[in-house]
């Protein structure tokens, strides 16, 4: 495979703090010799483990970019042992557009791995992480939130993995993150995910869902900022002890967690995030909007638990995931 | 002025429950003899006052449409004395598109009054309310929320008016609505608003802001449903007593309530809705997103109060209203 | 009112055949000093009446432009007594785009009269016809068809007018046209129409609907070509006798001619154009398309007659005119 | 190859009538966890052959969806022996948009076979038919019409095949369909077609072209409804005898059937569908539209036969197929 | 007329240097309480004349904005006597989009005067200049260039005016500007222009055309920077003497200066800007692009002079101005 | 690999002059059986070498198409020995749209080689040149200019090649072309280029950059017309001697030739094309446009030479190439 067309404008190996870019040449109608410039910061202080910290894998999820732009600006080399590589907005074109996928190629970065150096812009970004940045890392923290169309109770998460030592290390990092909820995820279809790429290399991999709706709040941004510091402390990269927080563990044991819509309509939620639900409860209703007087369609819980995620926009379309029930320990 | 091109497909005067449409002929490329069909319900039972209930004045605000589609479907004529006219989605093209303004003409209905029978689709809708529906009403309740780009603490509101009797009647209806907050609004620029059109005819006019972000929650939808029933009871149209709720009164005394951005960036909120703030507090910061390491811009409160509204999307642009501070009684 | 910004590039008064343009300056992003160039032909031979012949008033109706581009190319001055002004595509931007309305301003030219020299491009075109071309004419023939979204049995038509002498002259010209059907139209809402503008000046005005669907057939194009020659012969401008054809007269006596949809769906026609129908007959059905197994909605005739027009696209939306029943003599 | 991401929401094997969906997960900006929901009906009654009936392979062709939504709603299990699988709108996103290709990925489903489980939405649909539904079928009927841009005389058709037994069975099914015309097709470039995929598995495969222009008529919808019932009867799945109809057989023996445009212009047809033509006849002309007075370009027949298909829109572009001549037996 | 909705964020009257904005509230789908923020600088030092300096009247013309952003940053209050108001990008939305007209309303600001406080965004900007800024000014310099679609020899210009004293003062300021060319313009259609608005108030008004094509060069940017300083010196506002430069005076005496295209094609220029031409010379040719081998159309000069402006893009459309010949003294 | 779907409508081998098309079938929403028609001329006179002449590889570069449409129209068979194949606009959809890449698939033809017969429209064009036209050629001349977003000093160029005999033959053809500048190019990333495809087959390959900005001038069009004639004479295909011109040789020795922007802004050039520069010189500045008073960013030369290319549009974005310095002999 040919080398990545992406080049870092700063040295990823040198000691100190460096602010630069991943420069990705991108010839297009409005710039024949243009490039996508993905901001990057590297903080290094001698030997030690490397943490790779990413946000903006989806462009409309904000807690990660807030925590990471803030961290990149304030972290001093002397606070660190080893290396911190910060890419606050991985799918930078999507982040600038405020959309889940890239406005250039409509690529969903988290389904584009392992990527390709000859593919679309999104595939080129995936390939660079796959072949250049992930191999440098010992621990990987990738921030997600619900984006414009989903909303979550705030949690950090790791996957159930075949290598139980790797799994245990990942859940330990999740616990260190200290979000209000912590999730054990069993991914049904992991093809193309950044998570899968990192885990297949044996990395400790932590992800999150910290809210959603295409916004952030003071509360969720605070969870993200505290969480990333905790993970770096847990990894021995940042000085100081993990700031311990209580968390509530959740499982998503099967496809019955999910309720999908078969009809479009105006969504009336009847349960809010974090509230307990029982199997058969009506979680929400969709009112037909073509005329008044028509009966709404009910969406029900398929198992007992708490409402962990929900469709965010006021209108729902056939095929949308309306609700996710998480099963508490 | 020539007659409105809009016609109701049901009799607005007859007793009983009628579900129909306001049909607005709209010739266009994809339908030469097409129409906009705005759902309408009329519930009448003999003599008595008329309430005109509207949602979807802006198309991305959902608590009103939820409460009104629900009410239109469930209200029986025998529960009523007088008449209830329900238009759950006034700017119906905007509502179907999930956008503040109309996808047909980008019209902001709440700046289009008194409208025109010869104008754009949005102006024709305004004109029909101005000349046909508003004159029929004794009390008008128009639901708003923040829409996709603003978020509010939930309140019902009325305007400070020159006619103090009318003002008092309006605030009494606000109190009956029973939202967690109640707002006394002094509109600085009221040109083109539906509120102004109704108030100029001497109507009792109640409006709301019940959340935002382009979604609704079980909590805010519940406030809307309870509020509309309370207003109808207060008006003597619906049987039964107002279901009293505690409310907290707020004022927006001057332009100092508003904080506007002069720079674009990634918005990090530092205060959440409903929290107390003091003049000079940093409410939020905007991180420059072109590179890491750059200093954020601070947005500060300009008076003491509580955070009553905020910019919702994760990115902020120059000129956006970042925050509104309400002054509590 | 200031003069029209439109100028003809050829002399409208001189004898002979002239091919030129109506040049309308149009400054825009892709041409700062650009213009809209509307093709125009003038054929004159001494004194005599003036016929103003137009097509493309709506840009997706083709029988008129075919007949008029053909006529403009083949008509010789010596065949004529008086003057023929031919504008085969009035709303030329719409005609080039193949759309009912102008791609520049979405203007429906046939609702833009009397127009304005300071308005949109479409309004400027209307104003030029209103103040320059219509006053030159004795007889006006404006070709229409159904366009992309309607289909008609082929007819020529004139309006019922207060001036019965003008009305009779118009119907005589309709009869001369010799389409398979001839229609007596009672326009309910004539505001903004070219027809109204011409009739208000006392002109003999003939219009047509010669098919539709955004296409033309050999049969309908033939009707148009024969019709325009017949009208010119009838007016004494073209040599020779009217080529007589049998026609069937239709009326559209009331709003009951029209059947509108209140639901969207997949349209299944049950009656074809020109077939007889009786009040209550199901003319078409709309199948819901969100799922299989749902009941279709029936659209019924509201009076006896023949099916004179129908919705053309395979999908129907709420508010579309599904069918028009014409009442035969 | 990994399993298809598409899942049927109903059991394809159980007896009785089931209305459900093919659910295709589709993460996108306006629904992070959204899906495409393709309506599906399965009617089964014990052992017997399986017919796979499809429409909407191209989204702007309507006779097939009309016949199949109608059939799916009305067919009772007790009328059937074996199984009928009905997908009235294969490329459902295209069907909802009323376009030939998918609005999601601009995919032409009939050029996407064998598809891929990792590809675009259109490729995923092709893959599901290739690997799941086609293997279940004994006989396959796929409805086509001309769509928005072509118009055909109504015919059912099958391909000349290397396996003459399979070919004979297919032509027998075409004859049973009973359209006014029947076509023997020799496909020059069969790469990517659904037809080819089915035929390569040895299935009896019948297709149609039943009109076009993006509409349906009572006549053509009737042909489709009668045809599908006849094919099911012929296959022994539906009770009763084939309702015999006269048909006229046509061939498309070579590339000389096709006339392509090398110039753009306003299309004037001189021959209508079904009319006889002789080699050298002018079938249509294109009038230049930039100015009046310019000579039209003639499009001529290249062999004797009848006009079997034609370009539908009123404007023609360079490269468009203007006409197809079929050779009658 | 109601007050302008635009407010300056800085004091226009105070001494010193102030950088701020004209804030124009603009409610829209992506910001319910958003604003357009037009950068503004005011440099004042005591009593003296006021110069109003503007660029970006059209958004794709760059010499003016370059000179004015540079001037606003570097001018010190102590260098000035009186006041300099600098708005480097009047139609700021157009300037940010790099387009002639506003992306919000497609408004051409230089055809929007006198504007309206209730109109579109572009009309509101015009109204603010008309009623607030122009009345403050003694001398007005408005920078133009050719934009993306035209290219000019660099000149400053003023209009022939009925008030000969005002005209003389204006031409004196043009001479002071010191561009390579200076133009005496006789505006044929001055309706809606900023020039006209300023001149009607009796202001000394200077405009320019300093190149084009949607770019700037070191040479043309230098002309703009020197020109604005010279005009301020000439007006007695900036210290120091006018830096004299040789200029060549041109006239545009009639419509024969302009050559318009009646055909589209690939434009081959045969004369370059500034070269002498004689009546009848072929200035450029348009090659038809639909096929090879077709004859090009010639565009000829209609009088003697020099080539002063030309169509810039490589393709030309019917109606475009291909060339302007200026008549040298 | 299957055969190309593209077919030439004229014989490429026969003697004489033929004007035709490369017809590429392209089924799409607006033409189910449509095609892309790429104009082509073949001029042949007996045995002799074949020159393949192309323009419009990028659709917004005009000198090549001008020279080649002109050549194709005027070249007579008797002037030639051997064969000249002329494709004035290779990426014809891009050329008609006036954009660098194809409006159909956003394909950059010069990054699409070797292409594919099953791929996008752009990939099909590449495949046809790769497998059909390039193998026929002895010498290949492919015209480029800067397009809308870059501007160059006018040069012809060839690549430094491993086969020094091929390299020498190529540079000899460059010298014969006779542009004001001649460039020795060392391509850093040659993947997907037409150049690479031709050179890998051992062809003599000449390319150019003859200006830019999306326009042509009389001067640059003249260079192109003279250059192509010279190359044909040099190859012994066209009669007559090469018209010798002085040229200046340039090198682009390393990545230090290029200056990229890391910030967006309003671009102020300080050096013009062709001017000498020294390492460290400020070539241009970017003024921040969000407010007045902010400091511009400087872009500096990284080695000594002349300014050979520059960013053309007035605004610059992060990642754009701002300037290229060429090193003169």
Automatic annotation (TrEMBL), chains A, B, C, D, E, F:
Keywords: Hydrolase, Metal-binding, Zinc. The keyword Transmembrane helix does not apply. One of its GO terms (molecular function) is hydrolase activity, acting on ester bonds. Its cofactor is Zn(2+). InterPro entries: AstE_AspA_cat (IPR055438), DoeB (IPR014336), N-alpha-Ac-DABA-like (IPR043795), N-alpha-Ac-DABA_deacetylase (IPR053138). Residues 48-234 form the Succinylglutamate desuccinylase/Aspartoacylase catalytic domain. Gene3D superfamilies: Zn peptidases. It holds the Pfam family AstE_AspA_cat. This is N-alpha-acetyl diaminobutyric acid deacetylase DoeB. It comes from Aureimonas flava.
């Amino acid at each position: 495979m040919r080398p990545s067309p992406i080049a870092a404008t700063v040295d990823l190996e040198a000691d100190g703090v460096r602010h630069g870019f991943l420069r990705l040449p991108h010839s297009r109608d409005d710039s024949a010799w243009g490039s996508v410039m993905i901001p990057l910061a590297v903080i290094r202080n001698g030997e030690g483990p490397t943490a790779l910290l990413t946000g903006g894998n989806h462009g409309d999820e904000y807690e990660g970019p807030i925590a990471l732009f803030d961290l990149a600006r304030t972290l001093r080399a002397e606070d660190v042992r080893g290396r911190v590589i910060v890419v606050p907005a991985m799918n930078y074109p999507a982040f600038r557009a405020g959309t889940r996928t890239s406005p250039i190629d409509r690529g969903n970065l988290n389904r584009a791995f392992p990527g390709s150096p000859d593919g679309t812009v999104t595939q080129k970004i995936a390939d660079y992480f796959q072949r250049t940045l992930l191999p440098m890392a010992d621990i990987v923290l990738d921030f997600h939130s619900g984006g414009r169309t989903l909303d979550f109770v705030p949690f950090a998460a790791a996957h159930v993995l075949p290598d139980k030592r790797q799994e245990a290390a990942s859940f330990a990092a999740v616990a260190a993150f200290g979000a209000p909820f912590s999730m054990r995820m069993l991914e049904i279809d992991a093809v193309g995910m950044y998570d899968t790429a990192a885990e297949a290399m044996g990395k400790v991999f932590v992800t999150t869902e910290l809210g959603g709706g295409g916004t952030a709040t003071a509360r969720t941004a605070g969870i993200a900022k505290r969480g990333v510091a905790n993970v770096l402390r847990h990894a021995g990269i940042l000085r100081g002890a993990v700031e311990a927080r209580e968390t509530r563990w959740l499982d998503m044991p099967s496809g019955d967690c999910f309720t999908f819509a078969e009809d479009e309509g105006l969504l009336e939620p009847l349960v809010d995030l974090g509230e307990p639900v029982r199997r058969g409860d009506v979680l929400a209703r969709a009112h037909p909007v073509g005329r008044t007087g028509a009966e709404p369609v009910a969406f029900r819980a398929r198992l007992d638990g708490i409402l962990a995620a929900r469709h965010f926009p006021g209108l729902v379309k056939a095929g949308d995931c309306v609700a996710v029930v998480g099963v508490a320990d």
